[in-house]
Amino acid sequence: MEPFAAVDVIRAKRDGERLSAEQIEWVVDAYTRGVVAEEQMAALAMAIFLNGMDSAETARWTGAMIDSGERLSLHVARPTVDKHSTGGVGDKITLPLAPLVAACGAAVPQLSGRGLGHTGGTLDKLESIPGWRAELSAEEIGRQLAEVGAVVCAATPTLAPADRKLYALRDVTSTVESVPLIASSIMSKKIAEGSGALVLDVKVGSGAFMKTIRQARSLARALVDIGAAHGVATTALLTDMSTPLGSAVGNAVEVVEAVEVLKGGGPADVVELTLALAREMLTLAGLSHVDPAEVLASGEAYETWCRMIHAQGGDPDAELPKPAHVHVVEAPESGVLARLDAYAVGVAAWRLGAGRARKEDPVQLAAGVRCLAKPGDRVERGQPLLELHTDTPEAVPAALDALSGSYDLTQRHNPGAAEGTVLDLIRG
Ligand code: URA
Fold this sequence. Notes:
Blueprint: H1 6-14, H2 21-33, H3 38-51, H4 55-67, E1 81-85, H5 94-103, E2 108-112, H6 122-126, H7 138-147, E3 150-154, H8 161-171, H9 179-192, E4 197-204, H10 213-229, E5 233-240, E6 248-250, H11 252-262, H12 268-284, H13 292-298, H14 300-311, E7 325-330, E8 335-340, H15 342-354, E9 368-371, E10 378-379, E11 384-390, H16 396-403, E12 407-410, E13 422-427
Parallel strand pairs: 1-4, 2-3, 4-5
Antiparallel strand pairs: 5-13, 6-9, 7-11, 8-10, 8-12, 9-11
């Protein structure tokens, strides 16, 4: 005999009431078991979308999703700390960050996903490295964490299975963009992965989920509150996603850029954000005395990257896939690049084959966009602005269509001070 009827829980939320802890625990568990039907959960998700959940309800909802599966128990001597990004265009930060923070003395268990839509997925990027394997068992994750200090791999299917089911339902019922549902979805997976601390990179701008700083702040606050309620020290950074991060957007092209950063070079915004996130992670891990900039410069982070890739069957020295076709977009006039829109570049990369429309679609490892100028740079007429990489040249017109109106060239020398990448910080 079930203790509640789904229809009563739906009605309560529809009428703006708070759900009790018992109602939440039951409804999430019963949905996972198939006792609450998809259409009932769809109605409840819409009621939550419209009427919200307060922070206590959201923390309970997260706990119920964690309890729907297994929690990894990481037995490593070092403090564990992870990072999660809400997703952006050119966001390859995990690639240099995980080995850097490991080289600084923490253990980084980073269970990642594949890309869907205009934002890329970390696993798709790493799979451009010949031999590299995303699927690891819980034992392999534990061993690699102890031996290398960093692991980036696919989330095991036993982590928060309720979220997997609910996320697919939200996707087709227009209930994704709800702060309590997004926050509980992200945090259930991250807390189940067993890390002691967590830094969140909440993206703001055209290429992000959250288009305004106000929305991003509200999501960041909800995420940090859930962390606190579950005893996981959590900090959120709000970072700019109005323009692509770095120059490379795609799969193999982003790996190349990440390796440049690990070797002491790379675009300034990628280095800045990698170090900012590393500092917060080290603070939460009790390692604030270690300077990540020094460790990056010493080459130790690059060595850890090579060991991390090797441990998962990859060859860090192998040549990465090259595109069959490169199309160059030239500057139509001379001037200063005042704007380069992240969303447009993300959609162009996706149309070139770097991303997928359905989760079972394959991606082209060599597809993507290289942004040869960044906002604030002066360019001359005819100078290459963007390089479009693809194995399917018939995709180029659709990518160009996405890029139409995506950048402005101005005759002013200073089109306005460029903001730094980090816009705000919210601590628990
Ligand atoms: N990412 C997630 O994992 N869940 C959401 O609901 C949105 C983004």
